[in-house]
Amino acid sequence: MEFKMIKPPYKYNEQRSYKRLLNLHIALLIVSFFALVLKAFYFESASEEEFKLSFDILRSFDSFLLLIVGVLTSVIVEIFYSLNEGTVEKFYQYKSYVDPINTGLLIALLLPSNTPIYVLALAVIIGVYIGKIVFGGYGYYIFNPVLVGVLFAQISFSTNTLVSGTPLLVLKDVLSGATTETFNLTRLLLGHYTAIAIGSTSAILLLLVFIYLCVTKVIDLRSTLSFLLTIILISLGVGYITLGQGALNFSLINLVTGLTLFGAVFLVGEAVTSPTTRETKIIYGVVIGVMTMLVRLLGDAAEGVVFAVLLGNLLTPFMNRTVTRSNKKRLIKTVTYSLLIVIIITISIGFILQGRLQESYEAMAFIGGIL
Amino acid sequence: MITEKKEFLKPKKVFIPITDEKHKMATTKVAEGDQVKIGQLIAVKYKGKEKVNIVSPISGSFEGLTQKLDRYNNITDHIIIKNDFENTYEPYDKLQGDLSSAVIRNRLADFGIKEVSVDGLFTDIDFSYKINHIVVNAIFINEPFISIDYDFIKDNAAEIVDGIHLLKEAAYAKTMTIIVDKFMDQEALDALGEELSDTDIELRVINRKKVDGADYRVIKDLTQEKLQPNLLENGVIYTTTHAVKMVYDAVRLAKPITKRLIAITGDGLKKNLLAEVTIGMPLLVVTAMLGGYEKGDLNLHIGSFLTGHQVENDSLSIKENINSINISSFTPQDEEVCIKCGDCNDICPAGILPQNIMDAELRNVNERIFELHTDECVECGLCSYVCPSKINVLEWVRRAKRRTN
Given A85, A137, A153, B84, which residue has the most CB atoms within 10 angstroms? Predict the structure, then answer.
């Protein structure tokens, strides 16, 4: 009997690229749904001791509208491009919608709920077209298209996407010694605070999604974990140097609010734009973590994750070029050096915030002036 | 796991390939119409000045030459021998007691016992290199789907241990290692352990459920050096228990290789089983006796899934270096775009970076390919196996490897 010849590989394991994309899709839909639901709950009385919750679905209507617009714009841009290319047949299957929907949802989730709709639409168009399609679609882009869109919106429409009174902004004032503030941990964990983005929702939910995505191998544990550890280490160290007693609280707020967890789940572990070996993945996580904390503590912006991940994306080709092989020795070396660098940066940030470096620099400049 | 076992030892005719991929030249040593006995020299194949004997697996009459497909999917010359069912053996001495290296080597050369396990990392039994380590795999491997014949180990434990010692003696090797499975049948392990107890053979346990090139790590641990694609260059003979049993038979019992235990599997067959097949028997005879094939498009795979060959026709004849045959239906998988997840980089047992090599090969950067230690690839095929986008990563690495030479 004649047999068909198939080309290798003949056997695979159960992992599939499309399955991973679909898992991410499911995770995103869950996060969007719960973000909307959690937004609909609110405290009726002003006092926080009374946990009298009320539910009003209209409170999350603007967020819902933004998510829908984000998804629709993304899909429409992709379909228009396919029409131009003559490959529109692929949109007969749901398979082709998964990635556009993911991108649209992510961009909408990364912007605050008071964003004007036209800003979001523009951000999605820029993100999907310039960030993704120009490079050749899913799998080829250098920068995460989501971040391209979000950064465009944040820079070009900075007043429209501004949120004041987020926990991280409050923390900045606390660090400078202007005020003191008490946070309610339950509210922070459930996402009941002025959030910088729709997606910056309940920490518990994001943690569950994080575990789900790690188990299904959608995101890489090494980069995300090193990112989170870096943030914890730096915030603990800086908190200890500047605040003393409040270090733990400072670290916790840095971890559960803002885009830290959302970034860890959906941005840092993203496969296409992150490096490919385990050593560089660790370095990638550390770089993003350090950059995030630098922006948060020293910069003007309230949130540094978007900038930091984009910087990580920028460094990815370089990191891929520096590795030649992967073994235990190199792994240990990478971890030790990363740890050292994180500690050094922590100490320097702490001293800069305390103003000691500034003082010593001024003293030296003074001496220099005399001589 | 297959439990059924069947014998296919009475072929009317056998077809024995006299050339193969390595040995392109061959001469026959018998004339048409001659009577041959089991173990009689019928042909010699050459590669340079190396020669390998081909002996008859059955007794009968020599019927000439024909051209047929072999297990590597090439058309080669085959010798036809018609069986007379008398099973007369060519007289050889049964060698007992302690033997010198030369005696064992001569006997193995007489019977042409050289290429007995060729897929994947396994090496030939070749004494032209300086050998330090003998490594024997007691797992009946067909990565990633593995079936194990524990009965073989249970029944032949003493022979296997003696065969390892014979190999060590012949090769002047220093260490002996046997690799067994973590989930091995207790009786088989007991039988093997009893024989191993007073010897200096080291027992290594690996987990066969994880597909991660554990045998590579064991050998790397032994040699403590960079492994070559051909392990003989590292001074390692890596072979299977079946091959060791063949060595034992040849030396102690004066029996050449006449049959081979093969796992015949796949959903394209009516029945899956372990078959003991006479060397040279065409596969189509065996499958016909099993009840033929299922309907639909099927593919025929010889050897390990990660490193074996596809063959387009079932007329090939069984050789001693075939350990498994898979006939199954398939669904064509579309290759997707590389998502740079780095799974191939994590799994590579040699510790090199297949994704980066593929990238460099696509960009035609020779320097980078050289820098990435591409020459260390042993072509185990694990990178293609784990790829979630179904990219044939191994083929890209192979292409890159050709540039380094």
Answer: A153
